Predict the structure.
Amino acid sequence: MNWIRDIVTGLIEFYETNNVLDLCDCLGISIIKSELKNKGSLFCRNQLGDEFIFIDSSVNEIDRRTMIAHELGHAILHPDINIAFYDNSLVTRCKWERQANIFAAELLMFDVNELDYIHEGQTLSALAESLEVSESVIEYKHKCRFL
């Protein structure tokens, strides 16, 4: 899905960052930490156009970044939706969820070729730790190469 990669590239070039917190700040998207039943996150847009990402306060930093990137994907790619949930996994469900997952993987691993690391003999776990992303993000980015 090159069109999503192109959007991510444009976003990063325009704002000169791929930091999800900085991007949300630049785009006026409020991040609210709260206790959520599913230990995930939620994106919502109200009738006035205000945008919010609710994220469970108990998730670790790597999962938090992944969830925010995913919800940011909904905010940018799906301007007509008012609400979207993230359930703490990058499991493919519907078209919009797959698109948000691709957006998150492209954003969090911008300018990273995971194949370079794998060919150097680095394990998936070690690569995830060094890039400060979850293993599922690396796996999704790798799958995106073949879409």
User: Anything to note?
Assistant: Residues 60 and 66 are 10 Å apart (CA to CA). The longest strand covers residues 29-34. The chain has one domain: 2-144.
